[in-house]
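EI: anyone free to look at a 325-residue chain?
SC: sure, send it
EI:
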Amino acid sequence: MSMTTPPGWYPDPNTPGVERWWDGVAWAAHTRAAQAAPAQAAAALSTVPMHLSPPPPGGGRPERRRGRLVAFTAAGVVFTAAVVAVAAVMLRGGREPLPGDASQATPSASEAAAVTPTKAPEPSETAADPEDAAVLEDQLNGIAIPIPDGWEKSSRSSDIGATMVTDESYDCPGGTSSLCRHGRVTSITADAGAKSPEEAARKDIPQAADKAYGEEILGSQPYGGITSHTEVKAQSIAVAGRAGHLVRWRVHTKEGRGGYVQSVAFPSAIGTEAMIVVRLAFDAGPDGPPLAAMDTIVSSVRQLGDGAGESGGVGGGITRDPRTG
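SC: here you go
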C-alpha cells in the first residue's frame, strides 16, 4: 500500500524555526513561524536528511542540479516517511506514534481544521502614478517641472541633466545625421563660483546657446554653427518661491531659423543651496513652441514634494535694460 503525506504544516527543510505548508504533493509558498516547542522542532528536523532539502533557486551548475534531482527522486520514499513522522509528532503534542498504528499518522478532523492554511496575501503592486510620466524631476537639485502637452522626457544619453523635449523631431538643417527638436528644457546644477542668480544666469547663457544651436559633444554642428546673438530679455524673477534671474538670447545660425535660448538661475532649497539653472531652447519660426511658453514653464517649476509650482514673487516684475545688464 502506498503511503502519502497528508497536507499540513511541517518544518521547512531549509529554514530552521519556520514551518512550510505541504499540500500533499509538493511544498507550497506559504510559511509561518514554527508552532512546536523549540526542542520538538529541533528533534523533528533532525529526522529529515539534509541532502533532501531542495537546492536554492537557480543555484549550482546544470549538471550538478540534474544529479541532485536524481538523488532527490531516489530518496522520495524515505523523505515521505520522515515527513509523516514529523507530522505525527507535531499534531500529537510530541507523542511518538505507536508501531503499526496507522491512525496516528493521519490528523483528526479537528486537527486538520486547526492547520488549514490561509492563503498568503498577495504582494501588493504599487500602481504607477500616472502623474509621474507628466513631471520632469531633477532629484539632484530637488525640483520638478510639469511636462506640457506635446512634450516628453528625453531619452538621449548625452543629456547632462533632467531634460524634456517636444515630441516631434526633424532632420537637422545642418545636414548632420542627428535629429533635432523644436523645443528643449534642461535642469542642471550651475557652475560653481557664481555669487548670485544673475551672475549664474549670465555665465550659463553662452553655454546654453552653444549646447542648443552650436557644436555638439562629438563636434557636429546641427545648425551649421551660431553666427550671432542678441540679448532680448534680462530680469529678476521668482522660481519655486526662490529669488532668481533670467537671461534670454535670440540666436542666429548658419542653417535654419535659429531660435531663442534662456538661462534661469536660482538657489536650491536643499543642501548647500547651490545655484540651479534651467535652460530653455525654442526654435524660431512657426514650427517652434510659442515664446510665451518659456514663461509658463518657468512659472510651473516647483520644489519636489510641493503640490504645485509658485508663480510670481520677489522681483517678478523687475526688468533690466539689456544694454546695461
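EI: Confidence is low (pLDDT under 50) at residues 41-107, 109-131, 308-325.
SC: 👍
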